[in-house]
Amino acid sequence: MSFKRQVRGSRSRGPAAGFLTWNRRVQLTGLGLTLPALAFAFAFMVYPVANVVFLSFHQYSPLRSADTTYAGLSNYTWVARSDIVAHSIWVTIVFTAVSVAIEMATGLTLAALLAELVVESRHAFGRMLSRGLLSSFILPFATPAVAGAIAWKMLLHPQFGPVDAILRTDIAWFAQFPLASVIVADAWKTMPFVLFLLFAAILSIEPDQYEASRLDGANRWQEFRYLTLPSIVPVLAVVAAFRAVDAFTKIFDVVFVTTGGGPGNDTQVFPLLIWRTAFDFLNFGQASALAVVAVLVSAALGASLLAIRRISPA
Amino acid sequence: MRLGIGVRLLALLPAVALLATACSNGTTNTNTSSSAKVVRVLAVAGPETDALIKYAPDFEKATGITASIEQVARPLWGQRKVHELIENAGLYDVVMTGGGDDNLWVKYKAHVKDLSKLLPAADIDQLILKDKFTYNGRLVGIPQYYNFPMLFYRKDLFNNPTEQANFKAKYGHDLAPPTSYDEMYQQAEFFNRPPNLYGFFIGGVDWSVYLDDTYFVYGLGANYGDPTSNQLTLNSPQQKQAMNWLVKFSKFNPPGWQTENFFDGDQLVQNGKVAMYQNWFYIWKTFQQKMPDKIGMAPLAGKGAHLGAFVATIPDAAPEPNNGAKFIQWMMSATYQKQQAIETGNLPIRKDVLQDPDVRKALVGIEQFEKVLPNLQYNQTTWVGELSAGVSEAIAKALKGDLSPDAACDWLQNQKFTGRKAIE
Question: What is the predicted pLDDT for the residue at A313?
């Protein structure tokens, strides 16, 4: 007897058929099965977020007082008035915009070239080369962020770094061009993520379309401009939105290791400011308000990029 | 007969319960009778804890108490200490705190046991600098060791006859380890020969530049707060002098120093790029091993130096305070103090161990350390984390030229931290 038929049968028997009706039992079973997942989600997702929101309206700074007292909007007022917060948000927005732009541009270019190589490779050597190249791009992404940041710090060290040695300069990259250097280090790490998603998107385009375009006399650039690009716009938008949210809310390790937020506050990105406010200053009320702002800004950022996708002609 | 899904789920409950029990941490178990055999120690991951970990088996063998030493990541250590000592979390029997920057809040804010009532008087009498850890007659902590900044300089250059003659011809006095900031400045200027050699090194990362600032501030006899009046003293004449010196010395730094810290300074000195710098003497042992003929050590040019220690406290809420006391008693024993001093190069905390011939032989330059010991200072505010970030922000303004060093100090006192108190 199929499940559907069982259900139908139970319905026909009515409430008198047992202590619980079949439908009721199915509902309770469903609830029972989802309960662990719900409890998990509540404990590790809902409760922490709710607690952050709660703390953002309270004064909780244990070095001043062990008590948590209601503070109204004072933490948010501080966020709105603080020069450091405004500067940090600005630095993070610049970082996010430039970093994501670089990642998308290089990721798209490399994905298109690699796709071309993979599709066009007729010989075993060519296929091997394309696979080798493709695999090599996973390395930065697979490298732990801190290890990657240390490597960049060593590469760009003004005294002992190979970059200055090759260029025969003594530029202190992280001191003289701090934000640009941090952006390059971060883009190196996260660009492969963009590359692989776009590569998969390009490969999913029907080959017939390319054949048709070639019959119509389109060159490679025209193929890319009028066929590849429009076909992957939805993926591009989602990837850009994802990276933007990720860059805004999670840029921490690279900055922490390479510049520590300096010189001065030049690279004090928002997550670093939140961390400092919480764990250096032990002001958890203000840190929570900052965290809520970060969530709101990143949500707005993501939503606006996805909205662009919806109104795009593709 | 087919069992209902609900019944089958019920049958799973014991298995889930068993799994949950297996996955629970050991904290619950420690409340059983076995808890008397464990001492839980909160420490930081890093070299401070190395000797404790290494020699803890000796403690366990002697007492039959298991030492559970938890090493938390340094960035989280501050919050965990406060959670135990102010918020009475009650998870640990011993909480290790920092020396200079934690000392005041531990004295004024922490809920800790008076160790003079838990430890033998004979041991406490041996404690060097006992007053630094005593508040209102209560002994709030026992340090594991003492460590503080010293001046490290290129001994080979300072002893070079040509350099000596050239220096004397230029400045009119002998080239020797400096005893004033004016002398130190002249020497940094003299040896500043970029790109091969730079005269000085200051760590530019916020926490590191704050430490460099403390060397000048304490060296000039100043501090960041005055607990007696409960006022901040961030723009006192000495504070302004300290900021001026810091900015002046920064021009002899190698490129890129703004994003480096004193560990980078260690590398630069070892690679012959820096003529002198002020740093904690943990590095002395490395210099002794790798380049004994090249690097010399002297007390800082100023009057005072930053107290460094790794201080054991027993929270009021400690589950087993007696075990904590036994652990601290072992930590301050002559045997362990001798072991850790020889092992790490840090100064022992006991008067008798300081005079031990083996220790004196192992700690090269111990006479220099002894000169500094009476002059150790610590930050006189209870919120050093936030204060130090503000100080480094002011330094950045002065270094960039946005404000003069004097104005940066005034900004700190009158704008950044206006209305704040030394003890909050």
Answer: 53
